[in-house]
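Slide 14.
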Amino acid sequence: MLKQRVWTALVLVLGLVLLLGFGDSTAWSVFLLVVSGLAADEWGRLARPAPLPRYVYPAITVLVLTALLFWPALVSLQSPLLFLAVAFWLAAVPLWLRRGWHLAGAGACALIGWVVILPCAIALHVLHGFGNTVLLAAMGLVWVSDITAYFAGRRFGRHRLAPAISPGKTWEGVAGALGGVLLFGLVLRLPVAESTGIALLQHPAGALWLPALLLLAALGIEGDLLESWLKRCAGVKDSGWVLPGHGGVLDRIDALTAALPAAAWLALQVAHVGAA
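Slide 15: predicted structure.
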């Protein structure tokens, strides 16, 4: 299993490097459409948004995302949708997890699925517009959070974070994630970053740089918990099977769905302030 996970991870990393290194913005958008369609298909099996043929929900998701990315009349909705997603993750999801709500009703299931999936894709599109450095920094923050939480939890974990949702997660793991993200943020502020797109975001942000990183790390943990809760409600171990050793697409982007909309929205605000 470990060998399978490693090989899949290497293929994914290589594919991402090739896409960002040799692909253009259109290729990136097409990639986002494919990933979003797969994620919507898995959401449909986890949350059962409607008693319709399986392909209908992911097909509608791809069509809506295509309009949001390419139709000029709807491009202006990207920032408000990112803000809506941030409000959802900051206000609704903590209450959802605390009270242990179960998704009910086809309309609610479909709508919440779009609130989870579409802003994440929009965020990846927006961050890509700032350049590969900013995009990889945002994604890297979430990856650093995941990795440091895992190892800190395994080594020091004693106090469970949410035993009814994900018994393996601990408060020690959370502390490790926050510490890892702080270190990551300090590395990004080294003088070498002055020559990269990171400088665009960190200078106007000033003292808010590190608190913003901690917020993104916390949101990533929340995204992981929400998907764990949905899988527990559905009685499944993984959201899908398309990634050998890793499960499904949602299993790999759960933290990104929560953290990246906030990262992209903050990037847009800070860039606007810096340009003013």
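Speaker note: The chain has a mean pLDDT of 85.
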